[in-house]
Write a structure and sequence with these properties.
The complex is a heterodimer of chains A (116) and B (114). By secondary structure, chain A is an all-beta fold. Chain A has strands spanning 5-7, 10-13, 19-24, 31-38, 42-50, 53-56, 65-71, 74-79, 88-95, 106-107, 111-115. The termini of chain A are far apart. Chain B has no helices and 11 strands. Classes of the chains: A mainly beta (116), B mainly beta (114).
Chain lengths: 116, 114
């Protein structure tokens, strides 16, 4: 398997623009996670899905952020409108969950977002 | 609320040295604990996962221990090499396994000098 795939790897945009980040999880994994990493706050969970259904979105910072998972092989994280404080590295991860297994999460390479 | 702390934030050692990275968590009710490695500009790579019922896990030169009652875990790296230079992150899964959420520490940046 190619692992978790994220696109784009880098995104530079101006304040107020819409940004869409994309993720393809590992085939067979039924959990998908979106994280944000900054120097100040470290790595924070934004939202996670199980079988394409959002389970916990308590980490989504505000209404400007939205995430969807239309099918088992694709998810998007959208920021509209973007602000400079959204600048961070956004990671997607996937797992098979616990339920008798370890629940080990596998991370993608991340998208570095810069909002000017 | 579960909080994870990693001390020190940065560590520099000469090649060949054995070293210990520390991780502490505030709530002992965890399902498991995972150690990750992050290279600059890259994603996270899982190194070791310890279930709450386990005391330690080993993989090659790495050994991770877990003391749930005291809220501590250590990652021991034997005979360090320059290729071990990276940021090491500790993450706990709170509770009894009902949630898949991980809570991360901010990491320890390790530099191994040749």
């Amino acid at each position: 398997d190619a692992g978790v795939i994220q696109s784009p790897r880098h995104e530079v945009t101006e304040m107020g623009q819409e940004v869409t980040l994309r993720c393809k999880p590992i085939s067979g994994h039924d959990y998908l996670f979106w994280y944000r990493q900054t120097m100040m706050r470290g790595l924070e969970l934004l939202i996670y899905f199980n079988n394409n259904v959002p389970i916990d979105d308590s980490g989504m910072p505000e209404d400007r952020f939205s995430a969807k998972m239309p099918n088992a092989s694709f998810s998007t994280l959208k920021i509209q409108p973007s602000e400079p404080r959204d600048s961070a590295v956004y990671f997607c991860a996937s797992s098979q969950g616990t339920g008798g297994r370890t629940g080990e999460q596998y991370f993608g390479p991340g998208t570095r977002l810069t909002v000017t | 609320k579960q909080e994870v702390t990693q001390i020190p934030a940065a560590l520099s050692v000469p090649e060949g040295e054995n070293l210990v990275l520390n991780c502490s968590f505030t709530d002992s009710a965890i399902y498991n604990l995972q150690w990750f490695r992050q290279d600059p500009g890259k994603g996270l790579t899982s190194l070791l996962l310890i279930q709450s019922s386990q005391r330690e896990q080993t993989s090659g030169r790495l050994n991770a221990s877990l003391d749930k009652s005291s809220g501590r875990s250590t990652l021991y790296i034997a005979a360090s090499q320059p290729g071990d230079s990276a940021t090491y992150l500790c993450a706990v899964r709170p509770g009894s396994g009902g949630s898949e959420k991980l809570v991360f520490g901010k990491g320890t940046k390790l530099t191994v000098n040749p």
